[in-house]
C-alpha cells in the first residue's frame, strides 16, 4: 500500500508548536503595518482564474487591471489617495468565495473586480451582497447571473450570453445562415455552456433555424475527432460552437484538420482562442465584445499603453478588467466616497462611461448589465494582416448607430431579475 | 442496420486516436516498470516537448523539431534523473510521487514565466495536411502519420528492451538489482538511460500532439490523468498491456461519443473501473510491482 508507512519523520508536536508560535509572532508584527496602510490607500481586490482552462484569459485580465491601477496612481490616484491592488487566483467557486471573504474582512478592500467563471462569479457575488461591497464582474457570460441570481451589489461589464448571441446572430442572418437552416451544436457540458445553449436555442426558435442537433462535450475533452465525424454524417448548414476557453481553439484546429466545409459560428468567444488557433486554422463567424483594432481615440490610447506596458496588444479580457478599474475609480471620484452603497447608487444612476468604443455605455438600473456595443468577427484576409495579432476582421457595431443599446439585451419582461 | 457504418467509423477512428493515448502512456509505463517511479511530472515533460518544438520549428521545420525537441527534453531528464530520481528508486514510492508532483508544478510555472499563460499557435505542417478517403471514411494524413510514429516508437522500444544487451541488463536489474551489482555491472547509467528514454517519449508525444491539442501551460496536467488510466488498464509494468489499453481507450471513447456524447471522458474511467474489478492488476500486469 502506498500509505502503509507511518507519518513522515521530523514533524513532531514540538515542531508544530514552534511553528504556530512563530506564525502568531509574525501576525502581531504585521498587523500595525496593515492598519497604517489603510489610512492612505484605497484597497481594491481582484479575483480571477489564473490557472486551469480559463487561466490564459485571467492573465490578460490581471494585465489590464494592473495597467489601469498604474495609470490612475500616476495621475495622482483617486480622492488624493493611491489605489492598492490585491490580485489573486480565484481557482474555483469555493476558493473564490473564501478569498472574497478574506479580502473584504481582513484586507478591507472597498470593492472586488474580475472573475471569468460564472460559477465563481456567483460565489463572489454572494459574499459581496452579504458584506455590501460592490463586485464588478468582467468575464462571466451566463444570463442567469443577471437574471435569477442578480444581486444589488454585482455589476456586469462582461456581456450576457443573450448579447453575444444577438451580436453574432445579426451577422449570421445577413449571410442567410439562420432562417430554415440546420444548425449542429457542440456545447461545453457545464453551467456556462448550458446557459449559452438555452439562449442560442431561443434565438434559433425565434428566427426560424432548426437547432435540434446538439452534442454535449465534457470540459476535459481534447480530441474532437469523434464529434467531427458526427458532424460530417449530419451534414448541417452551420456548426455552432457553445464551447469555452482552450476547447474553442482545439475544436477550430481539428475542424480544419478534417477539412469539413460547413460554416462555423459560435456563441461565445475570446480573442485569445483565435490567436491560439493561428491565422491558418481560424475560421467562422463569432461574437466579440471588444477588439484591439477598434478605431476610436480611447480604444487606440488603451491599446498603445497596453502594448507598451506588456509587449503585446490587449485581449478582450484585458479590456474588461481595465475598464472595471477605470469605472470604479470614476464612481469613487464622482461620489467622493468609498462606501459600497454610494458607489452602487452612482453606477445604478445611469451615469455614462467611456467604454473604449464608439458609443458611451451605462449600467441598466434593474439588472446592472453594462449596455454597450458588441461586434462580430471573422478571419481577416491574409494579405490584409499587419502582424501576428491582426488576424480578425471586426464587423460593424451591433446595435447599429441609430438603434437603442438595449435592443440586443434581455428585455425586462423576459428577465427574472427585478432590482431597483 | 443503417447505423452500422457510423459505429464502424467510430471504431476505426478510435484505433487511429489510440496513437494519441499510446504516445502519452508509453514513456510513463516505461519509467514505472523499470524505475518504480510513478512519474507525475510526465505531463510536464510532454508540455516542454511541445514548447521546445514551438521554438525550434521556425529554424529547422517540423521534422527538425520532432527530432531535436525530444532529445533536448531527454537531456533535461538526464540531469533530473542523476540529481533527483536516482535517490528514490529503492525508497517508499510515495517519496517519488511527492518529488514528481512538485516537479510537475515547478515546470508548469516555469513555462508560464518563460512563454506566458496564453496558448501559442502551432499548425499541422504543410506537407502533411489533407485527408485520406477510404470508401466513405475520412482520415486526416496527420493522424495516420501520428499512428505510424507511435507504432515505430513501440517497436523501437520493444527491440531495445528485448533484443539488445542493454535490454537484458535492464531486465536483470528489475528482477534482481543486487545480483546485477555482484556481477560487476553498474545499474546507475542504465537507469539514467531508461528515464531519459521515457521522458524523451513524453516530449515526442508533446511535439506530435501540439498541432491537435494546442500549446498552453496546462497541457501537461490535461493529459496526465488519461495517461495513467491507460497504464492502469494495461497493467502497471506491462509493455503490451499499454498498447492494448491505448487501443481499447480510443475505441471505447469513440463509441461513447457516438451513443452518449456527454459521457465521452467518463467512459474511459468506467472502463478502468470495470477492468480493475475483474482484474485488479490490470489486463496484463504480472504483479502489482513495488506496491505489494
TrEMBL record, chain A:
Per the UniProt entry, what is one GO biological process? amino acid transport
Identify the InterPro entries for this entry: BCAA_transport, Leu-bd, Peripla_BP_I, TAT_signal
Q: Which domain of life is it from?
A: Bacteria
Region Disordered: what ranges? 392-420
Q: Where is the composition biased (Polar residues)?
A: 408-420
Sequence ranges assigned to domain Leucine-binding protein in this UniProt record: 42-378
Q: List the keywords (alphabetical).
A: Amino-acid transport, Signal, Transport
Question: What family does this belong to?
Answer: Belongs to the leucine-binding protein family.
Cross-referenced PANTHER family: LEUCINE-SPECIFIC-BINDING PROTEIN, PERIPLASMIC BINDING PROTEIN OF ABC TRANSPORTER FOR NATURAL AMINO ACIDS
Q: What is the name listed in the Swiss-Prot or TrEMBL entry for this protein? A: ABC transporter substrate-binding protein
Native organism is Skermanella aerolata
UniProtKB/TrEMBL annotation, chain B:
Q: Which domain of life is it from?
A: Bacteria
Q: Which UniProt keywords apply?
A: Amino-acid transport, Cell membrane, Membrane, Transmembrane, Transmembrane helix, Transport
TM region positions: 20-47, 59-80, 95-120, 141-161, 181-211, 223-249, 255-278
**GO molecular function: any one?**
transmembrane transporter activity
GO biological process terms, semicolon-separated: amino acid transport
- GO cellular component terms given for this protein: plasma membrane
* Protein name, as recorded: Branched-chain amino acid ABC transporter permease
Species whose genome carries this gene: Skermanella aerolata
The organism's lineage is: Bacteria, Pseudomonadati, Pseudomonadota, Alphaproteobacteria, Rhodospirillales
Amino acid at each position: 500500500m502506498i500509505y502503509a508507512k507511518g507519518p513522515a519523520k521530523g514533524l513532531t508536536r514540538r515542531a508544530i508548536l514552534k511553528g504556530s508560535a512563530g506564525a502568531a509572532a509574525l501576525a502581531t508584527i504585521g498587523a500595525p503595518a496593515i492598519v497604517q496602510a489603510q489610512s492612505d490607500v484605497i484597497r481594491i481586490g481582484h479575483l480571477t482564474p489564473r490557472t486551469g482552462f480559463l487561466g490564459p484569459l485571467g492573465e490578460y485580465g490581471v494585465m489590464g487591471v494592473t495597467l489601469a491601477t498604474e495609470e490612475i496612481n500616476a495621475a495622482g490616484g483617486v480622492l488624493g489617495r493611491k489605489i492598492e491592488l490585491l490580485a489573486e487566483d480565484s481557482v474555483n467557486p469555493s476558493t473564490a468565495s473564501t478569498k472574497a471573504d478574506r479580502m473584504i474582512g481582513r484586507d478591507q478592500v472597498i470593492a472586488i473586480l474580475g472573475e471569468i467563471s460564472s460559477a465563481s462569479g456567483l460565489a463572489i457575488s454572494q459574499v459581496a451582497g452579504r458584506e455590501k461591497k460592490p463586485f464588478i464582474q468582467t468575464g462571466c457570460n451566463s444570463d442567469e447571473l443577471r437574471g435569477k441570481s442578480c444581486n444589488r451589489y454585482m455589476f456586469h461589464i462582461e456581456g450576457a450570453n443573450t448579447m453575444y448571441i444577438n451580436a453574432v446572430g445579426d451577422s449570421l442572418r445577413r449571410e442567410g445562415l439562420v432562417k430554415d437552416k440546420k444548425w449542429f451544436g457542440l456545447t461545453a457540458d457545464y453551467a456556462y455552456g448550458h446557459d449559452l445553449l438555452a439562449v442560442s436555442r431561443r434565438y434559433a426558435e425565434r428566427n426560424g433555424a432548426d437547432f435540434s442537433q446538439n452534442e454535449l462535450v465534457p470540459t476535459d475533452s481534447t480530441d474532437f475527432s469523434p464529434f467531427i465525424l458526427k458532424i460530417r454524417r449530419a451534414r448541417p448548414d452551420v456548426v455552432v460552437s457553445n464551447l469555452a476557453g482552450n476547447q474553442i481553439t482545439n475544436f477550430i484546429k481539428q475542424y480544419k484538420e478534417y477539412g469539413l466545409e460547413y460554416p462555423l459560428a459560435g456563441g461565445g468567444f475570446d480573442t485569445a482562442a483565435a490567436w491560439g488557433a493561428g491565422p491558418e486554422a481560424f475560421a467562422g463567424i463569432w461574437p466579440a465584445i471588444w477588439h484591439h483594432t477598434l478605431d476610436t481615440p480611447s480604444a487606440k490610447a488603451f491599446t498603445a499603453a497596453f502594448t507598451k506596458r506588456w509587449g503585446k496588444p490587449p485581449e478582450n479580457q484585458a479590456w474588461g478588467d481595465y475598464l472595471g478599474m477605470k469605472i470604479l475609480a470614476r464612481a469613487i471620484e464622482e461620489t467622493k466616497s468609498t462606501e459600497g452603497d454610494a458607489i452602487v447608487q452612482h453606477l445604478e444612476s445611469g451615469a455614462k462611461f467611456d467604454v473604449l468604443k464608439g458609443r458611451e455605455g451605462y449600467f441598466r438600473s434593474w439588472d446592472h448589465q453594462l449596455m454597450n456595443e458588441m461586434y462580430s468577427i471573422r478571419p481577416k484576409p491574409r494579405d490584409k494582416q499587419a502582424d501576428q495579432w491582426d488576424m480578425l476582421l471586426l464587423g460593424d457595431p451591433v446595435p447599429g448607430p441609430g438603434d437603442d443599446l438595449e435592443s440586443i439585451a434581455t428585455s425586462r419582461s423576459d428577465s427574472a431579475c427585478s432590482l431597483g | 442496420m443503417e447505423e452500422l457504418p457510423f459505429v464502424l467509423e467510430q471504431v476505426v477512428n478510435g484505433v487511429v486516436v489510440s496513437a494519441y493515448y499510446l504516445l502519452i502512456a508509453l514513456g510513463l509505463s516505461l519509467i514505472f516498470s523499470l524505475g518504480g517511479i510513478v512519474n507525475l511530472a510526465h505531463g510536464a515533460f510532454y508540455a516542454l516537448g511541445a514548447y521546445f518544438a514551438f521554438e525550434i520549428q521556425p529554424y529547422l521545420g517540423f521534422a527538425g523539431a520532432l527530432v531535436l525537441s525530444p532529445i533536448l527534453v531527454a537531456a533535461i531528464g538526464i540531469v533530473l534523473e542523476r540529481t533527483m530520481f536516482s535517490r528514490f528508486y529503492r525508497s517508499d514510492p510515495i517519496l517519488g510521487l511527492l518529488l514528481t508532483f512538485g516537479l510537475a508544478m515547478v515546470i508548469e510555472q516555469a513555462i508560464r514565466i518563460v512563454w506566458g499563460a496564453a496558448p501559442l499557435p502551432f499548425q499541422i505542417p504543410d506537407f502533411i495536411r489533407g485527408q485520406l478517403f477510404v470508401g466513405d471514411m475520412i482520415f486526416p494524413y496527420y493522424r495516420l502519420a501520428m499512428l505510424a510514429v507511435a507504432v515505430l516508437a513501440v517497436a523501437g522500444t520493444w527491440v531495445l528492451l528485448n533484443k539488445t544487451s542493454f535490454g537484458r541488463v535492464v531486465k536483470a536489474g528489475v528482477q534482481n538489482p543486487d545480483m546485477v551489482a555482484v556481477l560487476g555491472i553498474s545499474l546507475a547509467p542504465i537507469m539514467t538511460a531508461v528515464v531519459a528514454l521515457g521522458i524523451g517519449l513524453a516530449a515526442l508525444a508533446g511535439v506530435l500532439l501540439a498541432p491537435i491539442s494546442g500549446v498552453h501551460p496546462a497541457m501537461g496536467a490535461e493529459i496526465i490523468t488519461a495517461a495513467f488510466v491507460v497504464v492502469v488498464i494495461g497493467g502497471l509494468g506491462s509493455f503490451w498491456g499499454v498498447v492494448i489499453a491505448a487501443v481499447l481507450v480510443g475505441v471505447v471513447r469513440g463509441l461513447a461519443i457516438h451513443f452518449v456524447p456527454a459521457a465521452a471522458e467518463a467512459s474511459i474511467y468506467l472502463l478502468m473501473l470495470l477492468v480493475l474489478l475483474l482484474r485488479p492488476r490490470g489486463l496484463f500486469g504480472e504483479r502489482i510491482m513495488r506496491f505489494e
